[in-house]
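URGENT: need a sanity check before tomorrow's submission.

F., can you look over the PilZ domain-containing protein record below? I want to be sure the sequence and structure line up before it goes out.
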Amino acid sequence: MGIESRRQPRRAVSGIVEVIDTMTDEVVGHLGNLSSGGMLLIANRDLPEDALFQLRFNLPDEIDAAQPIITGGHVLWQARGHAPGQYWVGMRFLGLSRDAGHRLRIWSTQPAS
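Structure tokens as predicted:
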């Protein structure tokens, strides 16, 4: 195993948590893993390189479940996934509110259930 070099703790997401493009109100994929600084998006299509998105998703647990996370997302990298039409997309968050950042920090540092 290699040494983890990310700045923030990252936690795998169990189950399917949809990620919505708020500009089109379309599902662009689902969460793979999540930190307070970014996410692995399992996208249902190829996304433009270096693209910016406005995204919405819910945290996959009981922390303010009625309050979605709304944030900008910047595509850093992508690779074909294992399934046809699936892409793994590394994104960093932009313009995350203080409250959303706090909720993500708490969630990402908790042990997976």
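My own read: The first strand starts at residue 11 and ends at 12. Residues 8 and 51 are 22 Å apart (CA to CA). If you see anything odd, call me.
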